[in-house]
Design brief:
transmembrane, SecD/SecF_CS, alpha+beta, translocation
Length: about 625
């Protein structure tokens, strides 16, 4: 019979609509502005007396508290107004003191029964949720210097293995110089080093106290090192941002030496900046013996006591790059420590260095590359100049009791916060070169809220105009198209929520465009039905022909648009990708609703029934 679906098809459409409705519902429950309170120890929480005092202090300040939740990670105080978050944080800090960490947060308010079904709201982008935008610049010259320092350490080890005497190694610009005892040693050294390091230009130079071998990086090698520095820093920053737990962050390259980081929803910008911009790394070195030559040792002060120093070897056993995992914990005396696991290569190097040096000290050196800014005169104008510098400090100097393997611990840290941040940096990896903040922009939650309100208003206006047009143009069938349009919007929001896509202002533009395009299929179908009726075709056959014959045109038109959206997603970045995702999903949901859902409504209302006049 014409215009009748089998039962299974109606049930399939009903199931899809029900699932779409469930997974779209969480978006009706916006996040609550909140203040997160955590302690240094995960097993310690605020007691009822402290919570009551906090509630009283906040009430006196006129700050409305929506709810207080106790969670494993701490206590969450939900507020009614986002504008009061900063004031609430300051009051809580004054009441609790320095033993607690207080940070701004946004807490989901999705009902428990929806969370039990795995339903959650859409992630909102930086322009809708608020957050921070950082532009960072990679110090390319420092990347070259670091690579040359690593090469110098390897060369010194090779020369000692070959029993070739050398006096000193130094790095200046893109050149590594080695001072050897005589020309014979220099010839032997050049032969050995050139085999291991072929990407250098070698030059013999005269030295006042010996024969000098200069190794200069080739232009190709310089480009490779700089490209590696950018890519490695991108990977490290992504790992760090993931550790922060930020939903849908953006970390991407911009130009030859810059990286852009966007963290939606982050309110504690100081903490985010400290973690993202940290350039710290670790070095493990053996303590120097009394008879070690001066050119092989270095004097380094302790990080928490600059008056105390120690002599350590210049050669590095391993760096933080060899760490595969790290976690914060506490020792038997309640002092913070970091538990470390090394990768295979790092474990082998550590075992080889410690098994032959039992009873000797091993230092853990914390290295942080920083920069100072100063104003200098250039061409008659005052310009800002960055002066990089490196801070080194011993955080632990312990005696090797037995050969170490892949797992051990670092002690001597000042606070649990320092231990947590050090563990985070080691887990995420060290930077291949220092980075500097060149731009910082903060988007507040209030501005994000205004963007959301304007975006929702644009969707409402767009949908209202489409609804009115379809009602005026197609009368009763316009009602069918509008029901399909509403279903399309629900399914689109549900799909974005289920996929964990990030909604931005361009994404909202994609939704508005989708609403406008969603009725195109129904327009084609309804106009085809009109043509068949004008050609004196019976009404039921005209409806059937309208849906069947318009199908090819609908598919062709939507596939071309879908291809454009795929191209935008593949070559675009950031907001362009968000627009492409929304547009692609909108095309798929509009085809489903315009062809299947609208026809199901028509079939149920007029299918198989005697109809004398069709209101279309």
């Amino acid at each position: 019979m014409l215009n009748r679906y089998p039962l299974w098809k109606y049930l399939l459409i009903l199931i899809v609509l029900l699932v779409g409705l469930i997974y779209a519902l969480p978006n009706l429950f916006p996040e609550d502005p909140a203040v997160q309170i955590s302690t240094a120890r995960s097993d310690v929480s605020l007691d009822e007396r402290q919570l009551e005092r906090l509630r009283s202090e906040l009430d006196e300040a006129g700050i409305a508290v929506k709810r207080i939740d106790s969670e494993p990670s701490g206590t969450l105080i939900r507020l009614q107004n986002a504008d009061q978050q900063l004031v609430a944080r300051d009051i809580i800090n004054q009441v609790l003191g320095e033993d607690y960490t207080v940070a701004l947060n946004l807490a989901e308010s999705t009902p428990a029964w929806l969370e039990g079904l795995g339903a959650s709201p859409m992630n909102l982008g930086l322009d809708l949720r608020g957050g921070v935008h950082f532009a960072l610049e990679v110090d390319m010259e420092a990347a070259l210097t670091q690579r040359l320092e690593v090469n110098a350490s390897a060369i010194r080890e090779s020369l000692r293995d070959e029993r070739i005497r050398y006096r000193d190694t130094s790095v200046e610009g893109r050149t590594l110089t080695i001072t050897l005892g005589n020309e014979e040693d220099r010839s032997r050294a050049r032969e050995i080093i050139s085999r291991e390091f072929p990407n250098f230009q070698y030059e013999n130079r005269d030295g006042g106290r010996g024969a000098v071998l200069a190794m200069t990086l080739t232009e190709q090698q310089v480009n490779e090192i700089q490209d590696y520095a950018i890519n490695q820093n991108l990977t490290t920053l992504r790992n760090r941002v993931n550790e922060l737990g930020v939903a849908e962050p953006l970390v991407q390259r911009q130009g030859p030496n810059r990286i852009v980081v966007e963290l939606p929803g982050v309110q504690d910008t100081a903490a985010a900046k400290r973690v993202v911009g940290a350039t710290a790394n670790l070095e493990f070195r053996l303590a120097a013996r009394p008879d070690t030559p001066d050119n092989e040792t270095e004097t380094i002060a302790f990080r928490n006591n600059e008056d105390r120093t120690a002599e350590v070897m210049r050669d590095v056993i391993i760096t933080g790059d060899s760490v595969s995992s790290a976690s914060r914990s506490f020792d038997e005396n309640g002092r913070p420590q970091v538990n470390i696991n090394l990768d295979g290569t790092g474990g082998t190097l550590m075992n080889r260095a410690t098994r032959s040096n039992i009873g000797r000290g091993m230092a853990v050196i914390y290295i942080d590359n920083q920069t100072r800014t100063r104003m200098v005169m250039e061409d008659g104008e005052m310009v800002e100049q960055r002066v990089p510098y490196t801070e080194r400090g011993i955080i632990s100097l312990a005696t090797i009791q037995s050969a170490l393997g892949n797992s051990f611990r670092i002690t001597g840290l000042d606070s649990p916060t320092e231990a947590e941040e050090l563990a985070l940096l080691l887990r995420s990896g060290s930077l291949a070169a220092p980075i500097y903040f060149v731009a910082e922009r903060t988007i507040g939650p209030s501005l994000g809220k205004a963007n959301i309100e304007q975006g929702v208003l644009s969707v409402q206006i767009g949908m209202l105009l489409v609804v009115l047009f379809m009602l005026v143009r197609y009368k009763a069938f316009g009602v069918v198209a509008n029901l399909a349009l509403a279903t399309n919007l629900i399914l689109l929001i549900a799909a974005l929520s289920m996929l964990g896509a990030t909604l931005t202002l361009p994404g909202i533009a994609g939704i508005v465009l989708t609403l406008g395009m969603a009725v195109d299929a129904n327009v084609l179908i309804f106009e085809r039905i009109r043509e068949e009726i004008r050609a004196k075709m019976p009404i039921q056959q005209a409806i059937h022909a309208g849906y069947e014959r318009a199908f090819t045109s609908i598919v062709d038109g939507n596939i071309t648009t879908l291809l454009v959206a795929v191209i935008l997603f593949s070559i675009g970045t950031g907001p362009v990708k968000g627009f492409a995702v929304t547009l692609s999903l909108g095309i798929l949901t509009s085809m489903f609703t315009a062809i299947l859902v609208s026809r199901a409504i028509v079939n149920l209302s007029v299918g198989g029934k005697p109809v004398k006049k069709l209101w279309i």
